[in-house]
Amino acid sequence: MTLVPIAPEITGHARDLLDFIDASPSPWHAVATIEKRLQDHGFQRLEEAQSWLLQAEGNYYVVRDQSSIVLFRIGSRPLAETGFRIVGAHTDSPGFRIKPRAPHRAETMLRLGVEIYGGPILATFTDRDLSLAGRVSLRSPSSPISKLVCFERALMRLPNLAIHMNRTVNEEGLKLNKQTELPLLLCNLEQALEPLDQFHALLATELACETEAIMSWELGVYDTQQGAFWGPAEEFLANSQLDNLASCHAALAALLVVENPPCTCLCAFFDHEEIGSQSAKGASGSFLPDMLERIAIALNVGAEAYKQALARSFLISADMAHAYQPNFPMGYEPEHKAVVNQGPVIKTNAGQRYSTLSVSEAEFIGWCEAAGVPYQRYAHRSDIPCGSTIGPITSARLGLRSVDVGNPMWAMHSIRESAGVLDHTYMTRALEQFFGG
Ligand SMILES: [Zn+2]
Fold this sequence. Notes:
Helices cover 29% and strands 26% of the residues. Strands 1-2-3-13-4-14-18-16-17 form a 9-stranded mixed β-sheet, with helices on both faces. Strands 11-12-20-19-15 form a 5-stranded mixed β-sheet. A 3-stranded antiparallel β-sheet has the order 5-6-9. Helix 1 crosses helix 11 and helix 6 crosses helix 11. It is globular, with a radius of gyration of 23 Å. The relative contact order is 0.18. The structure holds zinc ion. Zinc ion (ZN) binds next to helix 6. Zinc ion binds next to helix 6.
Protein backbone atom coordinates (compact mmCIF):
# COMPACT_ATOMS: atom_id res chain seq x y z
CA MET A 1 0.00 0.00 0.00
CA THR A 2 1.44 3.36 -0.98
CA LEU A 3 0.31 6.24 1.11
CA VAL A 4 -0.34 9.54 -0.59
CA PRO A 5 0.67 12.14 1.99
CA ILE A 6 -1.86 14.84 2.66
CA ALA A 7 -0.61 18.41 2.21
CA PRO A 8 0.26 20.05 5.56
CA GLU A 9 -2.17 22.94 5.03
CA ILE A 10 -5.05 20.46 4.55
CA THR A 11 -4.13 18.52 7.69
CA GLY A 12 -3.64 21.82 9.52
CA HIS A 13 -7.13 22.98 8.56
CA ALA A 14 -8.59 19.66 9.81
CA ARG A 15 -6.55 19.96 13.03
CA ASP A 16 -8.03 23.41 13.52
CA LEU A 17 -11.50 21.90 13.10
CA LEU A 18 -10.80 19.31 15.81
CA ASP A 19 -9.52 22.03 18.16
CA PHE A 20 -12.56 24.18 17.36
CA ILE A 21 -14.91 21.34 18.34
CA ASP A 22 -12.89 20.42 21.45
CA ALA A 23 -13.31 24.04 22.61
CA SER A 24 -17.06 23.92 21.92
CA PRO A 25 -18.77 21.21 24.02
CA SER A 26 -22.19 22.92 23.83
CA PRO A 27 -23.93 25.36 21.43
CA TRP A 28 -23.26 28.18 23.91
CA HIS A 29 -19.57 27.32 23.93
CA ALA A 30 -19.57 27.02 20.13
CA VAL A 31 -20.77 30.61 19.81
CA ALA A 32 -18.18 31.75 22.37
CA THR A 33 -15.45 29.98 20.36
CA ILE A 34 -16.65 31.65 17.15
CA GLU A 35 -16.88 35.02 18.89
CA LYS A 36 -13.29 34.75 20.10
CA ARG A 37 -12.08 34.04 16.56
CA LEU A 38 -14.09 36.95 15.19
CA GLN A 39 -12.59 39.31 17.75
CA ASP A 40 -9.11 38.09 16.83
CA HIS A 41 -9.96 39.10 13.25
CA GLY A 42 -11.22 42.56 14.19
CA PHE A 43 -14.95 41.88 13.87
CA GLN A 44 -17.12 44.25 15.87
CA ARG A 45 -20.00 42.99 18.01
CA LEU A 46 -23.38 44.66 17.46
CA GLU A 47 -26.26 44.52 19.92
CA GLU A 48 -29.82 44.00 18.72
CA ALA A 49 -31.12 46.38 21.39
CA GLN A 50 -28.94 49.27 20.18
CA SER A 51 -28.79 51.26 16.95
CA TRP A 52 -26.20 50.25 14.39
CA LEU A 53 -23.65 52.34 12.52
CA LEU A 54 -22.09 50.25 9.76
CA GLN A 55 -18.90 51.26 7.95
CA ALA A 56 -18.32 50.50 4.27
CA GLU A 57 -16.63 47.09 4.01
CA GLY A 58 -16.86 46.63 7.79
CA ASN A 59 -16.95 43.28 9.61
CA TYR A 60 -19.57 42.61 12.28
CA TYR A 61 -21.42 39.95 14.25
CA VAL A 62 -24.57 39.63 16.32
CA VAL A 63 -25.32 36.98 18.93
CA ARG A 64 -28.87 36.04 19.90
CA ASP A 65 -29.24 34.45 23.33
CA GLN A 66 -25.70 33.06 23.47
CA SER A 67 -26.14 30.18 21.03
CA SER A 68 -27.09 31.59 17.61
CA ILE A 69 -24.82 33.97 15.74
CA VAL A 70 -24.84 35.95 12.50
CA LEU A 71 -21.51 37.27 11.24
CA PHE A 72 -21.15 39.42 8.18
CA ARG A 73 -18.84 41.43 6.00
CA ILE A 74 -20.20 44.43 4.09
CA GLY A 75 -19.48 44.01 0.38
CA SER A 76 -17.82 46.62 -1.81
CA ARG A 77 -20.77 46.80 -4.23
CA PRO A 78 -24.29 48.14 -3.51
CA LEU A 79 -26.53 45.65 -1.74
CA ALA A 80 -29.43 46.02 -4.18
CA GLU A 81 -27.11 45.04 -7.04
CA THR A 82 -25.51 42.02 -5.43
CA GLY A 83 -27.86 40.72 -2.75
CA PHE A 84 -26.60 38.77 0.25
CA ARG A 85 -24.48 35.65 0.04
CA ILE A 86 -25.37 33.51 3.04
CA VAL A 87 -24.10 30.23 4.44
CA GLY A 88 -26.45 28.73 7.03
CA ALA A 89 -25.51 25.99 9.50
CA HIS A 90 -26.36 24.94 13.05
CA THR A 91 -24.56 25.10 16.37
CA ASP A 92 -26.48 22.37 18.23
CA SER A 93 -26.03 18.60 18.18
CA PRO A 94 -28.25 15.82 19.46
CA GLY A 95 -27.59 14.45 22.91
CA PHE A 96 -28.73 14.51 26.52
CA ARG A 97 -29.83 17.52 28.55
CA ILE A 98 -30.05 17.63 32.34
CA LYS A 99 -33.55 18.03 33.79
CA PRO A 100 -34.13 20.90 36.27
CA ARG A 101 -34.46 18.55 39.23
CA ALA A 102 -32.20 15.91 37.74
CA PRO A 103 -30.17 14.77 40.75
CA HIS A 104 -31.86 11.94 42.65
CA ARG A 105 -31.12 8.96 44.86
CA ALA A 106 -30.84 5.54 43.25
CA GLU A 107 -29.96 3.04 45.97
CA THR A 108 -26.36 3.89 46.82
CA MET A 109 -25.76 6.31 43.97
CA LEU A 110 -26.63 9.84 43.01
CA ARG A 111 -27.97 9.86 39.45
CA LEU A 112 -28.80 12.65 37.01
CA GLY A 113 -32.04 12.35 35.10
CA VAL A 114 -31.70 13.32 31.45
CA GLU A 115 -33.96 14.44 28.69
CA ILE A 116 -33.19 13.61 25.09
CA TYR A 117 -32.33 16.53 22.84
CA GLY A 118 -32.96 15.79 19.15
CA GLY A 119 -32.24 12.33 17.80
CA PRO A 120 -28.97 10.92 19.20
CA ILE A 121 -27.94 7.27 18.77
CA LEU A 122 -28.50 6.44 22.43
CA ALA A 123 -26.29 3.35 22.57
CA THR A 124 -23.21 5.44 21.66
CA PHE A 125 -23.51 7.32 24.97
CA THR A 126 -22.77 4.18 27.00
CA ASP A 127 -19.30 3.60 28.47
CA ARG A 128 -18.00 7.05 27.48
CA ASP A 129 -16.13 9.51 29.69
CA LEU A 130 -19.01 11.97 29.91
CA SER A 131 -19.12 15.46 31.36
CA LEU A 132 -21.32 18.54 31.58
CA ALA A 133 -21.23 21.82 29.67
CA GLY A 134 -23.73 24.61 29.30
CA ARG A 135 -24.82 27.80 30.99
CA VAL A 136 -25.97 28.75 34.46
CA SER A 137 -27.93 31.82 35.53
CA LEU A 138 -26.53 33.41 38.68
CA ARG A 139 -28.04 35.91 41.04
CA SER A 140 -26.52 39.39 40.85
CA PRO A 141 -27.55 42.74 42.38
CA SER A 142 -29.05 44.10 39.14
CA SER A 143 -30.34 41.24 36.97
CA PRO A 144 -29.29 37.58 36.69
CA ILE A 145 -26.10 36.91 34.76
CA SER A 146 -25.65 33.89 32.50
CA LYS A 147 -22.26 32.18 32.74
CA LEU A 148 -20.80 29.35 30.72
CA VAL A 149 -19.68 26.27 32.57
CA CYS A 150 -17.70 23.26 31.38
CA PHE A 151 -16.26 20.66 33.74
CA GLU A 152 -13.47 19.60 31.35
CA ARG A 153 -13.03 16.24 33.04
CA ALA A 154 -14.87 12.92 33.07
CA LEU A 155 -17.67 13.44 35.55
CA MET A 156 -20.32 10.80 35.01
CA ARG A 157 -21.11 7.66 33.08
CA LEU A 158 -23.73 5.40 31.58
CA PRO A 159 -22.23 1.93 32.15
CA ASN A 160 -23.58 -0.88 29.99
CA LEU A 161 -25.25 -3.86 31.56
CA ALA A 162 -22.69 -6.70 31.40
CA ILE A 163 -23.32 -9.24 28.69
CA HIS A 164 -23.88 -11.84 31.41
CA MET A 165 -27.15 -10.11 32.26
CA ASN A 166 -27.98 -9.08 28.68
CA ARG A 167 -27.19 -12.19 26.66
CA THR A 168 -28.99 -11.15 23.47
CA VAL A 169 -27.46 -7.69 23.16
CA ASN A 170 -25.38 -8.62 20.11
CA GLU A 171 -28.32 -10.20 18.31
CA GLU A 172 -30.98 -7.67 19.21
CA GLY A 173 -28.94 -4.49 19.61
CA LEU A 174 -28.73 -2.29 22.67
CA LYS A 175 -32.17 -0.99 23.58
CA LEU A 176 -32.40 1.64 26.31
CA ASN A 177 -35.56 2.82 28.03
CA LYS A 178 -35.41 6.62 27.85
CA GLN A 179 -36.88 7.19 31.31
CA THR A 180 -35.43 4.40 33.42
CA GLU A 181 -32.17 3.38 31.77
CA LEU A 182 -30.56 6.68 30.72
CA PRO A 183 -29.96 8.48 34.07
CA LEU A 184 -26.23 9.05 34.46
CA LEU A 185 -24.25 7.80 37.44
CA LEU A 186 -22.58 10.77 39.10
CA CYS A 187 -21.29 9.73 42.52
CA ASN A 188 -21.90 7.80 45.72
CA LEU A 189 -24.54 9.36 47.90
CA GLU A 190 -23.54 11.56 50.79
CA GLN A 191 -26.23 10.91 53.36
CA ALA A 192 -25.93 14.37 54.90
CA LEU A 193 -26.87 16.26 51.74
CA GLU A 194 -29.94 16.21 49.53
CA PRO A 195 -29.04 15.19 45.94
CA LEU A 196 -30.04 18.58 44.52
CA ASP A 197 -27.93 20.40 47.14
CA GLN A 198 -25.02 18.11 46.43
CA PHE A 199 -25.30 18.89 42.72
CA HIS A 200 -25.61 22.64 43.37
CA ALA A 201 -22.47 22.47 45.50
CA LEU A 202 -20.64 20.79 42.61
CA LEU A 203 -21.81 23.49 40.18
CA ALA A 204 -20.96 26.30 42.60
CA THR A 205 -17.42 24.99 43.08
CA GLU A 206 -16.91 24.84 39.32
CA LEU A 207 -18.28 28.36 38.87
CA ALA A 208 -16.47 29.71 41.94
CA CYS A 209 -19.72 31.17 43.28
CA GLU A 210 -21.99 30.70 46.29
CA THR A 211 -24.45 27.81 46.07
CA GLU A 212 -27.29 30.26 46.76
CA ALA A 213 -26.35 32.26 43.66
CA ILE A 214 -27.44 29.46 41.30
CA MET A 215 -30.89 30.23 39.92
CA SER A 216 -31.31 28.02 36.82
CA TRP A 217 -29.33 26.21 34.18
CA GLU A 218 -29.25 24.57 30.76
CA LEU A 219 -26.66 21.81 30.81
CA GLY A 220 -25.78 19.32 28.12
CA VAL A 221 -23.82 16.09 28.28
CA TYR A 222 -20.63 15.85 26.25
CA ASP A 223 -17.85 13.35 25.65
CA THR A 224 -14.48 14.43 27.06
CA GLN A 225 -12.55 12.40 24.48
CA GLN A 226 -10.79 14.86 22.18
CA GLY A 227 -10.82 14.81 18.40
CA ALA A 228 -8.44 12.47 16.57
CA PHE A 229 -7.21 11.57 13.10
CA TRP A 230 -7.39 7.98 11.92
CA GLY A 231 -6.44 5.91 8.88
CA PRO A 232 -3.01 4.95 7.49
CA ALA A 233 -2.45 8.45 6.09
CA GLU A 234 -4.55 10.12 8.80
CA GLU A 235 -7.03 10.85 6.05
CA PHE A 236 -10.06 10.61 8.36
CA LEU A 237 -11.05 12.40 11.54
CA ALA A 238 -13.31 11.62 14.45
CA ASN A 239 -14.95 13.84 17.04
CA SER A 240 -18.30 14.67 18.57
CA GLN A 241 -20.60 17.27 16.93
CA LEU A 242 -19.16 17.10 13.40
CA ASP A 243 -22.84 17.53 12.55
CA ASN A 244 -22.81 20.45 12.32
CA LEU A 245 -19.81 22.26 13.82
CA ALA A 246 -17.75 21.06 10.83
CA SER A 247 -19.96 23.16 8.53
CA CYS A 248 -19.81 26.15 10.91
CA HIS A 249 -16.02 25.90 10.96
CA ALA A 250 -15.74 25.65 7.15
CA ALA A 251 -18.06 28.63 6.63
CA LEU A 252 -16.30 30.72 9.27
CA ALA A 253 -12.87 29.94 7.78
CA ALA A 254 -14.13 30.85 4.31
CA LEU A 255 -15.65 34.15 5.46
CA LEU A 256 -12.47 35.13 7.30
CA VAL A 257 -10.11 34.63 4.36
CA VAL A 258 -12.09 36.02 1.45
CA GLU A 259 -10.57 39.33 0.37
CA ASN A 260 -12.71 42.40 -0.30
CA PRO A 261 -15.93 40.54 -1.09
CA PRO A 262 -18.04 42.39 -3.66
CA CYS A 263 -21.28 40.99 -2.13
CA THR A 264 -22.31 41.37 1.49
CA CYS A 265 -21.46 37.95 2.92
CA LEU A 266 -23.01 36.34 5.98
CA CYS A 267 -22.78 33.22 8.04
CA ALA A 268 -25.90 32.38 10.03
CA PHE A 269 -25.37 29.66 12.63
CA PHE A 270 -28.55 28.65 14.45
CA ASP A 271 -29.28 26.76 17.63
CA HIS A 272 -32.30 24.44 17.86
CA GLU A 273 -31.98 22.82 14.41
CA GLU A 274 -32.00 19.34 15.91
CA ILE A 275 -35.35 19.97 17.60
CA GLY A 276 -37.12 21.58 14.65
CA SER A 277 -35.83 25.21 14.55
CA GLN A 278 -39.06 26.68 16.00
CA SER A 279 -37.67 29.24 18.44
CA ALA A 280 -36.69 32.88 18.63
CA LYS A 281 -33.10 32.00 17.77
CA GLY A 282 -33.83 29.00 15.53
CA ALA A 283 -33.87 29.06 11.74
CA SER A 284 -37.67 29.36 11.78
CA GLY A 285 -37.47 32.41 14.04
CA SER A 286 -36.94 36.04 13.21
CA PHE A 287 -33.17 36.13 13.75
CA LEU A 288 -31.90 35.99 10.16
CA PRO A 289 -34.76 38.09 8.65
CA ASP A 290 -34.18 40.67 11.40
CA MET A 291 -30.44 40.76 10.71
CA LEU A 292 -30.81 41.18 6.95
CA GLU A 293 -33.32 43.97 7.45
CA ARG A 294 -31.16 45.69 10.07
CA ILE A 295 -28.15 45.61 7.72
CA ALA A 296 -30.24 47.13 4.93
CA ILE A 297 -31.60 49.86 7.22
CA ALA A 298 -28.15 50.70 8.56
CA LEU A 299 -26.80 50.95 5.01
CA ASN A 300 -29.68 53.28 4.03
CA VAL A 301 -31.07 50.76 1.58
CA GLY A 302 -34.76 51.54 0.98
CA ALA A 303 -37.63 49.02 1.19
CA GLU A 304 -37.76 48.51 -2.56
CA ALA A 305 -33.99 48.08 -2.87
CA TYR A 306 -34.05 45.64 0.07
CA LYS A 307 -36.54 43.42 -1.76
CA GLN A 308 -34.33 43.62 -4.84
CA ALA A 309 -31.40 42.53 -2.70
CA LEU A 310 -33.35 39.53 -1.37
CA ALA A 311 -34.27 38.55 -4.92
CA ARG A 312 -30.58 38.54 -5.83
CA SER A 313 -29.47 36.71 -2.68
CA PHE A 314 -28.34 33.11 -2.37
CA LEU A 315 -28.28 30.72 0.57
CA ILE A 316 -26.03 27.72 0.91
CA SER A 317 -27.46 25.52 3.63
CA ALA A 318 -24.41 23.58 4.83
CA ASP A 319 -25.13 20.51 6.90
CA MET A 320 -23.41 17.17 7.00
CA ALA A 321 -24.35 14.36 4.60
CA HIS A 322 -24.45 10.56 4.95
CA ALA A 323 -21.32 8.82 3.71
CA TYR A 324 -21.57 5.31 2.32
CA GLN A 325 -20.68 2.65 4.90
CA PRO A 326 -20.00 -0.60 3.01
CA ASN A 327 -21.02 -2.78 5.98
CA PHE A 328 -24.58 -1.46 5.68
CA PRO A 329 -25.41 -1.25 1.95
CA MET A 330 -29.12 -1.61 2.77
CA GLY A 331 -29.12 1.93 4.17
CA TYR A 332 -28.24 3.63 0.91
CA GLU A 333 -29.61 4.43 -2.52
CA PRO A 334 -27.16 2.38 -4.68
CA GLU A 335 -26.69 5.05 -7.35
CA HIS A 336 -26.10 7.87 -4.87
CA LYS A 337 -23.25 6.72 -2.68
CA ALA A 338 -21.42 9.66 -1.11
CA VAL A 339 -17.77 8.72 -0.67
CA VAL A 340 -15.61 10.23 2.08
CA ASN A 341 -12.80 12.45 0.78
CA GLN A 342 -14.39 12.87 -2.64
CA GLY A 343 -15.84 16.30 -2.06
CA PRO A 344 -18.97 18.13 -0.87
CA VAL A 345 -22.30 16.44 -1.45
CA ILE A 346 -25.23 18.22 -3.09
CA LYS A 347 -28.42 16.90 -1.50
CA THR A 348 -31.66 16.69 -3.45
CA ASN A 349 -35.14 15.61 -2.43
CA ALA A 350 -38.25 15.93 -4.59
CA GLY A 351 -40.30 16.58 -1.47
CA GLN A 352 -38.13 19.64 -0.66
CA ARG A 353 -36.73 18.17 2.54
CA TYR A 354 -33.63 19.71 0.98
CA SER A 355 -33.97 23.10 -0.70
CA THR A 356 -31.86 22.21 -3.76
CA LEU A 357 -33.33 22.92 -7.20
CA SER A 358 -31.65 22.26 -10.54
CA VAL A 359 -30.74 25.93 -10.92
CA SER A 360 -29.22 26.27 -7.43
CA GLU A 361 -27.44 22.93 -7.85
CA ALA A 362 -25.91 24.25 -11.07
CA GLU A 363 -24.74 27.40 -9.27
CA PHE A 364 -23.03 25.34 -6.57
CA ILE A 365 -21.37 23.10 -9.18
CA GLY A 366 -20.03 26.30 -10.77
CA TRP A 367 -18.44 27.41 -7.47
CA CYS A 368 -16.91 23.94 -6.96
CA GLU A 369 -15.50 23.94 -10.49
CA ALA A 370 -14.07 27.43 -10.11
CA ALA A 371 -12.44 26.35 -6.82
CA GLY A 372 -11.08 23.13 -8.35
CA VAL A 373 -13.07 21.04 -5.88
CA PRO A 374 -14.80 17.71 -6.64
CA TYR A 375 -18.47 17.31 -5.73
CA GLN A 376 -20.96 14.49 -5.36
CA ARG A 377 -24.72 14.05 -5.46
CA TYR A 378 -26.91 12.48 -2.82
CA ALA A 379 -30.48 11.27 -2.73
CA HIS A 380 -31.96 9.25 0.13
CA ARG A 381 -33.39 5.75 -0.34
CA SER A 382 -37.03 5.96 -1.41
CA ASP A 383 -38.16 3.48 1.25
CA ILE A 384 -36.60 5.36 4.23
CA PRO A 385 -37.83 8.82 5.38
CA CYS A 386 -35.38 11.60 4.54
CA GLY A 387 -34.00 14.05 7.13
CA SER A 388 -34.15 17.80 6.61
CA THR A 389 -32.10 20.94 7.25
CA ILE A 390 -32.49 24.66 7.82
CA GLY A 391 -32.36 25.11 4.01
CA PRO A 392 -36.08 24.72 3.16
CA ILE A 393 -37.16 26.68 6.28
CA THR A 394 -34.86 29.63 5.67
CA SER A 395 -35.34 29.88 1.93
CA ALA A 396 -39.13 29.68 2.32
CA ARG A 397 -39.18 32.37 4.96
CA LEU A 398 -37.05 34.84 3.01
CA GLY A 399 -37.77 33.81 -0.58
CA LEU A 400 -34.11 32.98 -1.20
CA ARG A 401 -32.57 30.83 -3.87
CA SER A 402 -30.95 28.01 -1.97
CA VAL A 403 -28.98 24.78 -2.20
CA ASP A 404 -28.42 22.08 0.42
CA VAL A 405 -24.90 20.72 0.61
CA GLY A 406 -22.70 19.02 3.18
CA ASN A 407 -19.65 16.89 3.63
CA PRO A 408 -20.04 13.13 3.81
CA MET A 409 -19.74 11.64 7.29
CA TRP A 410 -20.28 8.36 9.06
CA ALA A 411 -22.40 7.72 12.15
CA MET A 412 -24.43 10.93 12.10
CA HIS A 413 -25.83 11.64 15.60
CA SER A 414 -23.43 9.22 17.30
CA ILE A 415 -21.49 10.79 20.16
CA ARG A 416 -18.39 9.98 18.08
CA GLU A 417 -18.82 10.89 14.41
CA SER A 418 -16.33 10.53 11.61
CA ALA A 419 -15.51 12.29 8.32
CA GLY A 420 -12.78 13.04 5.76
CA VAL A 421 -9.80 15.35 6.16
CA LEU A 422 -9.74 16.31 2.45
CA ASP A 423 -13.46 17.07 2.35
CA HIS A 424 -13.10 19.74 4.99
CA THR A 425 -10.72 21.75 2.85
CA TYR A 426 -12.82 21.09 -0.28
CA MET A 427 -15.91 22.49 1.40
CA THR A 428 -14.03 25.51 2.75
CA ARG A 429 -12.66 26.32 -0.72
CA ALA A 430 -16.08 25.98 -2.34
CA LEU A 431 -17.57 28.38 0.25
CA GLU A 432 -14.65 30.80 -0.26
CA GLN A 433 -15.45 30.81 -3.96
CA PHE A 434 -19.10 31.51 -3.16
CA PHE A 435 -18.29 34.42 -0.87
CA GLY A 436 -15.67 35.88 -3.17
CA GLY A 437 -17.60 35.61 -6.44
ZN1 LIG B 1 -27.16 18.64 11.02
